[in-house]
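forwarding from the other thread:

> can someone predict this with adenosine monophosphate?

sure thing
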Amino acid sequence: MCGIVGIYDAGGVSFSLYHALYALQHRGQESAGITTFDGGRIHKHKGQGLISEAFDEETLRSLEGIVGVGHVRYPTSGANLPENIQPFNFRFREHFFAIAHNGNLVNAKALRENYEANGEIFSTTSDTEVIASTFVQEFKRSSNVLDSIVHCMRTLQGSYSVVMMVDGCLYAFRDPMGIKPFCLGKTESGYIVASESVAVDALRGELIRDVRPGELLQIDAQGIRSRQIAIAKRKAHCIFEFIYFARADSVLEGKLVYDVRRRIGEHLYEEAKVKADLVSPVPDSGTSIAIGYSHRSGIPYLEALMKNRYMGRTFIKSSQREREMAVRIKLNPIKQHIRGRSVVLVDDSIVRGTTSGRIVNLMKEEGASEVHVRIGSPPIIAPCYLGVDMPTREELIASDKGVEKVREHIAATTLHHISLAALVDAIGIQIEDLCTGCLTSHYPVQIEGESCAQRSVDIVGGTYQTKLLEAKGA
Ligand code: AMP
């Protein structure tokens, strides 16, 4: 998971980076960091917690410069240690580098072992330092940034959307299959690259397009240039971004996520019709799916649960009573909407089965006559190795239980998951261009012990074309 942003803007970048990261906060709440460059010196700050906890106005004022990168972290690889907070900053020869990464490298361990065997020292446990080391491997030979990024794209396997600042120049590159989202936007006096288009919206900018799979963008005083470094035979956009992870108001691969989720809700009704008194989402992840379900079925949309938006990170709850109270603080059932009624309860996914089980239980405690659970993803049967924080196979309830067993477990009246075909239709991208690893156990890259749809990536390498997208002031 994680959110990344890079901005080049003659008007200064620190407040824009901060606001863009605010818009990406859902992608990571563990820590946040910003690095800027003012033409002579670098400025950086990192902190634990939410972006609003990690930064104050005074700090932001001190982050001078017209170019910078930022990151919000949700750890998928690397422990929760202060040294793992990104951007990862380093100096090499007379140059200064800052890197922020969203994704997960499947060959990070092998690369790290290889580099360590050659005497390299690592100061963090995060994948991002492996990217930096791979970059430096080539850079110390050629002193050429572009060749060093090409070397990274040749060497790194897995998912990576990367923003990189080298002195006063901003680079952005995306893995050849475009697994994690990444977009390019224009602001009043500059450019932004970010994990999701909501970051562009936050700056009142204009979304230009997604960063293309395998593309390298370079943004500096001359304007913006594009190079297609790697070409894969297929794309593999993360299907889970559309289901759950991205914000509903983001546009991914040209699709408004809200619309995708509404269509998921419509398909859910068509696939498993039911008569009921109301349709309610599990807030907030089920909201746009429930709206689609209600719209297609004609069953009124009425919230059966309210989420406490001030619920912070959970604390350790030792007793069963404390755990039950925590659920009630987080989600309060609206008794008046539930009692004696049949409810269609809509959520995006079932992972361990804990949330759905608890909520069905809450509904029944408040007197619901029936609880029909509708889920906007097919059963999640396999782990994610490419950047979404998912539990192991053993912890995934659907990995060894069929739908009927899961229904029994969560004590729902009926349970239906959207079919993969309907989900793909709702997204509107052909299945060959989506990563469905968590739903099918087939991954787009080779992972030890898992099956892989043929990996086929051509690196254009030294013959790549440089295309000037926009010159400065254009
Ligand atoms: P569970 O209780 O383990 O079945 O989790 C299901 C709930 O967690 C759903 O309501 C989802 O919205 C949410 N969810 C799904 N995937 C993730 C994830 N990778 N990280 C955090 N929450 C998730």
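The first helix runs from residue 14 to 23. thats all i got for now
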